[in-house]
Design goal:
The complex is a heterotrimer of chains A (about 250), B (about 180) and C (about 725).
Chain A lengths: L9 E6 L8 H9 L19 E6 L9 E6 L9 H4 L5 E2 L8 E2 L9 H5 L5 E3 L26 E3 L4 H13 L15 H5 L5 E5 L6 H5 L5 E2 L11 E4 L3 H5 L11
Parallel strand pairs in A: 1-10
Antiparallel strand pairs in A: 1-8, 2-3, 4-5, 6-7, 9-10
Chain B lengths: L1 H34 E4 L7 H7 L4 H4 L14 H4 L11 H11 L45 E4 L11 H10 L6 H4 L2
Antiparallel strand pairs in B: 1-2
Chain C lengths: L4 H16 L3 H14 L12 E8 L6 E8 L2 E7 L31 E4 L2 E4 L2 H13 L8 E5 L6 H11 L4 E4 L3 H12 L5 E4 L6 E5 L10 H10 L10 E6 L4 H5 L2 E4 L5 H14 L9 H11 L2 H8 L3 H13 L3 E5 L9 H13 L9 E4 L12 H6 L2 H9 L8 E5 L10 H9 L3 E4 L6 H5 L2 E2 L10 E4 L7 E6 L12 H11 L9 H14 L3 E2 L5 H6 L10 H6 L4 E3 L12 H7 L10 E6 L24 E2 L2 E6 L1 H6 L7 E6 L2 E9 L7 E5 L25 E2 L6 E2 L4 E6 L1
Parallel strand pairs in C: 6-7, 6-14, 9-10, 9-12, 10-11, 14-15, 15-16, 21-26, 23-25
Antiparallel strand pairs in C: 1-2, 2-3, 4-5, 4-16, 8-13, 17-18, 18-20, 19-20, 21-29, 22-23, 24-25, 24-29, 27-28
Helix pairs in contact in C: 4-17, 5-12, 8-10, 8-11, 8-12, 9-21, 10-11, 14-15
Classes of the chains: A alpha+beta (about 250), B mainly alpha (about 180), C alpha/beta (about 725).
Chain lengths: ~250, ~180, ~725
């Protein structure tokens, strides 16, 4: 896998000790990205959840049991597994900021990328998007609706980044270094407990730059070498331990 | 017998050439005409009347908003600043005022430079270029040119294709990354 | 020279070869591929100028302060409003889908009246005439008109209850909630004054007893923001949180500790904590402190509490030590699902805060001035909160109270969201003429005779005054972001118009002027806009704020008016005599398990069913296909022979419901966690028939001593089917 480096690396730090699993990020994400509602959303093989909140358990019996929630967007890996397997270059990591792109009209729906992604962050449109009558009036202009047969995933609300760059140009600010409030993905913006911090991982002015250096910060399946741009934080050892796979002899 | 063969052979070559010729005529002359349907704008909007007659500037209607986005074509809100009621003799103006503005309906203008939903284009990133490098110059136009719609793809004939965007970006050393232009 | 077969073939081949030198094949292939990218049934985007309008979204009970993003005037998405202290930029999962719910398939198109089994659309004038007719027949006869409101914090209650009062009716009820129980306890049982709130922001240790405050209890988003601010990322937490309750709720999941306590034992547990404080010399200056002291020292010793709630004495002592060590500890009590918790728990919680000396202290329990009122005829807030809908309906069901002739229901779904809901629905069905103001076809609307849909909360004037749980007084205004998507009329405006037509003068022509009067009244009370300084900082003295000059103007910009005024207490009691009778749970062997319902806002609220966008947030261990799940721990599952995914029937004294079983150690033994928000029979295809309604198995008991209706700790038995 090729490793991609950029001057600007947009990333998230998700504080799992703050996430209550309320689901506001998931709803805000669907609204922002024009994901059509599904009648039977309990069939998780069909749902499109660019942002998905997992429930973690420390697997201990009552009363030692503990619960944590883990929101999972696209990791925007530094060495993405999905990119090299795409036969039509519908997905790429080639832009300043390091966001892995997904171009719907180009996608042929082969789903190699879904098989390759270790985070299950990619979703296939098994159905055409159908909005209840009139609800299509609430589509945001940010993302094109996807037809049946293509793969989609979290883009860190990329159009917001483009809009922020546009604003930077209008206000004569460096499009690579504008105030972090100008570009926040819908999930980070909605999160009522402030569990999601978003910014440029390389920019010392941004909170994320400090947070990723915390001893409590970790990434998912780090040992695969995918170098995700999404970090997690937890003071709970068991939560951090579950962030990767371990062999039986490996200790906490 | 021999004569017959020669005739037949030359007839073969002739027929072949006739076929090639017919294909070329169809392909280069008829096909482009059939491929596009010619449509007129819903209102005969005259730029001349506004620009020359009323001394309006282009950016009175085609302006940048505060957030850097481009307003594109004006909506009723803008047009209604003057055309709340019919003010002239022109039947096109009357049609606009009575059938659209007063009904609260926006005019479904045909966009010559139409781009599909999956394209993100920022006008302010391209501000150093003259508008007419991409758009037809309509400033002195009295009646809008016809709009040609591709019968298969549904796009405008003037819709800029991706290779043109990419070529210009490449020549100017601007990123051609997917997400620079797609959403 | 004719064209023979061979020549024809040459012609065709020539044509084919020639075609390759024309644009036909290339252009055709290109255009075709573009055609396949733009199917006509895929919706197209509409562009336009982006703008944001600040308002209040009232999908959740407390209301979220939002900025509604519009594109070319069309609302497209809700965002939190960072300038409003009620949600400080955050958003609950219900309000996150608020804009989309403007186009819910359940939305009522306009006024309708029942004709046999279906509804026929009528005009607003016809509707008003029909209702006036029915109301005229009830004038002056108390008991013939009843109203139910599902909005605990809105000024619309003044309009509606004022109208009822003018018609001579006193039966005006709110849907049950902890705010009412708290008020009944504080201003009744304990002889206090004002409204109780909690200054979470300044507390350094918060013990939530029952109250799932970071998920659905009280002003959730504000609670979450307070929690968030005290836990700066990567730094040492500034405050700790402990959750006590039967289930490791979402609040418990992020708290520093979870103390498992049976739902019926929450009051005893709280009094058990009081024991340690009293033992260590804490006291409160009230007349009945001695009897309170006797009560806890004799009946709530650690051993007795262990017997009552199964909690080890060490745990209790450890907890009391933590409370004693904290500089600014705070105890917040409530029902796990925000209603039916009983007075004993509220009284015990208040007593605990008083014993710690936390009344009207920064980070403590705050007694705030009672809400002012602008409609003279309306019920006073205290009286409004004192009325108990559940006991009224139970009396009606049992024939102890007269059935009214007319019932009007505003923003409430009592047919679905009351305990022992089937019996409640039967009682409601007996009322001959029922009117619903609901925006949606909910279960109550489906049962009504006249539907007068009020606009969606983003399309109307409305307001929020200090939702229960807030630690300061606050008022925020909701104003219409767009025209109603359907032929709707604000219920307050409709009522004012109807009143006028019936020659009743409520003092106002329209609701906007009612709200304007409210703003004026608040302006006269002092107070400030919270964008100047955070109210908790003003309370703690860390900041000061200038009094707001024009409350109405500021409110329209989306700012919240705030006040940190407190009320001094004159004749507080601890309610010891009543507590002595009330707090003890009584075991019932025929129904061995306790139900702990969970209210999760992503699934819906008491009044709103799951928005279509929210369905993906529901786990497939909560709902799968048509079955909802109840959660039990391995020990309980083993005891009753339940396996993962088994279909079970839960039977309570007043109802039963079916569900699948999910085994999780988040639930304490002897408890069944059951989700609220499933099992709708009205609404739309996104929610109808999915899962079963937990409200059916909640059974109401009367609390000894207080007479309060209680349905936390409802008992059930479980059986495989």
């Amino acid at each position: 896998m090729t490793h991609h480096e950029f001057k600007v690396k947009w990333g998230m730090v998700i504080d799992l000790d703050k996430c209550t699993g309320c689901g506001a990020c998931m709803v805000a994400c669907q609204v922002e990205n024009n994901v059509a509602p599904m009648n039977d959303a309990s069939n998780k093989l069909r749902t499109l959840t660019w942002m998905l909140v997992y429930e973690l358990s420390n697997h201990k019996d009552f009363p030692e049991h503990e619960t944590a929630f883990l929101p999972r967007p696209c990791m925007q890996c530094g060495a993405p597994s999905c990119v090299p397997v795409c036969p039509v270059v519908a997905t790429d990591k080639n832009e300043e900021g390091g966001i892995v792109s997904q171009i719907y009209p180009r996608c042929i729906g082969c789903r190699y990328c879904m098989a390759a992604c270790p985070y299950h962050a990619r979703y296939f449109n098994w159905l055409d998007p159908v909005f209840p009558k009139g609800m299509d009036k609430t589509l945001t202009p940010e993302v094109s609706p996807r037809p049946r047969g293509v793969v989609e995933k979290c883009s860190f609300c990329h159009t917001r980044l483009n809009n922020a760059r546009q604003r930077a140009r209008a206000e004569d600010v460096d499009p690579l270094d504008f105030p972090v409030e100008w570009y926040q993905p819908a999930c980070a913006e909605a999160c009522p407990t402030g569990a999601i911090t978003f910014g440029d991982l390389n920019n010392p002015k941004h909170e994320v730059n400090r947070l990723i250096k915390s001893p409590y910060a970790f990434r998912l399946l780090e040992r695969l070498g995918t170098d995700p741009q999404v970090y997690y934080m937890s003071r709970r050892d068991w939560v951090r331990y579950q962030g990767d796979n371990h062999l039986a002899h490996e200790k906490h | 017998m021999k004569e017959m063969q020669i005739v037949r052979q030359s007839g073969g070559a002739l027929a072949f050439l006739a076929g090639v010729l017919a294909a070329l005529v169809i392909g280069w002359w008829i096909f482009p005409q059939v491929l596009f349907s010619k449509q007129e704008q819903p209102i005969r909007f005259s730029h001349q009347v506004h620009v020359v007659g009323q001394d309006m500037a282009c950016d009175d209607c085609h302006f940048y908003r505060e957030d850097g986005s481009f307003a594109g074509l004006p909506t009723n809100e803008k047009c209604g600043e003057c055309h709340e009621d019919v003010m002239g003799e022109d039947p096109a103006e009357e049609k606009y005022v009575t059938e659209y503005y007063q009904e609260g309906k926006e005019v479904p203008w045909l966009i010559y430079q139409y781009q599909p939903d999956n394209v993100y284009f920022s006008h302010n990133a391209h501000q150093q270029y003259d508008c007419t490098e991409c758009h037809p110059n309509l400033a002195d136009n009295d009646s809008p040119p016809p709009y040609y719609r591709n019968r298969i793809s549904g796009y405008s004939k003037d819709t800029m294709k991706m290779w043109r965007c990419e070529r210009c970006h490449a020549q100017n050393h601007v990123s051609n990354a997917c997400y620079v232009c797609h959403k | 020279m004719g064209l023979d077969r061979r020549g024809f073939i040459h012609l065709i081949v020539g044509g084919a070869v020639g075609t390759l030198f024309t644009p036909i094949p290339w252009k055709f292939a290109d255009d075709l591929s573009i055609w396949t990218q733009n199917w006509p049934w895929i919706p197209r985007l509409k562009h336009g100028e982006e703008a944001r309008t600040a308002t209040i979204s009232k999908m959740c009970a407390a209301g979220c302060a939002v900025n509604i993003r519009t594109v070319g005037g069309r609302p497209v998405a809700a965002e939190g409003n960072p300038n409003n202290v009620l949600s400080q930029g955050g958003l609950c999962p219900l309000c996150a889908a608020g804009v989309q719910m403007m186009y819910s398939p359940s939305r009522l198109p306009g006024p309708m009246k029942r004709e046999n089994d279906s509804f026929k659309q009528i005009t607003w004038d016809e509707a008003a005439a029909l209702l006036a007719d029915k109301l005229n027949a009830t004038v002056g006869k108390d008991g013939k008109l009843a109203m139910i409101s599902g909005d605990e914090s809105g000024t619309i209650n003044e309009v509606l209850s004022g109208f009822a009062a003018a018609l001579g009716a006193t039966d005006y009820y709110l849907m049950p909630g902890d705010g009412q129980t708290s008020s009944r306890v504080w201003t009744g049982l304990m002889g206090g004054e004002g409204q109780i709130g909690f200054d979470l922001e300044n507390a350094d240790l918060t013990l939530f007893i029952g109250a799932d405050a970071l998920e659905s209890w009280g002003p959730t988003v504000r609670n979450q923001k307070a929690f968030s601010a005290s836990r700066p990322g990567g730094e040492k937490p500034k405050a700790s949180y402990i959750y006590a309750g039967p289930v490791q709720t979402r609040t418990a999941a992020v708290s520093d500790a979870w103390v498992p306590v049976l739902p019926e034992g929450l009051a005893s547990f709280t009094l058990g904590l009081c024991y340690f404080l009293v033992k260590n010399g804490a006291s409160v200056d009230t007349r009945d402190f001695d009897s309170f002291k006797n009560l806890v020292m004799s009946h709530y010793t650690p051993d007795k509490v262990e017997k009552l709630v199964g909690l080890k004495p060490d745990t209790l002592q450890d907890l009391s030590r933590k409370l004693a060590q904290a500089k600014r500890p705070l105890v917040v009590v409530g029902s796990e699902f925000g209603q039916g918790g009983g007075q004993a728990l509220q009284a015990a919680g208040a007593a605990l805060n008083l014993l710690m000396g936390r009344l009207n202290q920064p980070g403590g329990m705050i007694a705030m001035p009672e809400a002012p009122k602008v409609v003279d005829a309306a019920l006073d807030r205290k009286d409004l909160l004192a009325k108990d809908l559940v006991s009224y309906l139970m009396n009606m069901e049992k024939g102890r109270a007269a059935t009214p002739d007319v019932l009007m229901v505003y923003e409430a779904n009592p047919v679905y969201a009351l305990p022992q809901s089937e019996a409640m629905a039967k009682a409601l069905a007996k009322i001959p003429f029922k009117v619903s103001f609901s925006t949606y076809m909910d279960e109550t609307a489906a049962l009504c005779d006249l539907l007068l849909p009020t606009p969606h909360s983003l399309e109307r004037f409305d307001d929020v005054y200090t939702p229960h749980g807030l630690g300061f007084s606050a008022w925020a205004l909701a104003k219409p972001v767009s025209k109603p998507a359907c032929d709707n009329l604000n219920s307050a405006d409709f009522t004012l118009k109807l009143a006028k037509a019936m020659n009743i003068d409520l003092g106002f022509e329209d609701f906007e002027s009612v709200l304007q009067a409210k703003a004026e009244q608040l302006g006269a009370m002092g107070g400030f806009f919270a964008d100047e300084a955070a109210p908790w900082d003003v309370r703690s003295g860390a900041a000061s704020a200038e009094a707001a000059s024009d409350v109405w103007d500021g409110a329209q910009e989306g700012k919240a008016w705030c006040s940190v005024a407190t009320v001094d207490q004159r004749a507080l009691r601890l309610g010891a005599e009543v507590l002595a009778k009330a707090a003890q749970p009584s075991p019932d062997v025929s129904y061995p398990l306790s139900v702990s319902p969970t209210l999760q806002l992503n699934v819906g609220s008491q009044k709103v069913a799951t928005p279509p966008q929210n369905l993906t947030t529901i786990r497939n261990t909560e709902l799968r296909g048509k079955a909802s799940f109840v959660q039990v721990c391995g020990q309980t599952a083993g005891k009753y022979g339940l396996s993962e995914g088994a279909m079970v029937k839960l039977t309570g004294p007043r109802g039963e419901c079916a569900a699948k079983v999910h085994i999780t150690e988040r639930v304490m033994p002897g408890v069944v966690e059951a989700p609220l928000g499933f099992g709708h029979s009205a609404w739309d295809a996104y929610t109808r028939g999915k899962g079963d309604n937990t409200y059916k198995i909640l059974s109401v008991t009367t609390e000894p001593g207080t007479g309060e209706t209680v349905w936390t700790g409802s008992k059930v038995k479980i059986a495989k089917i």
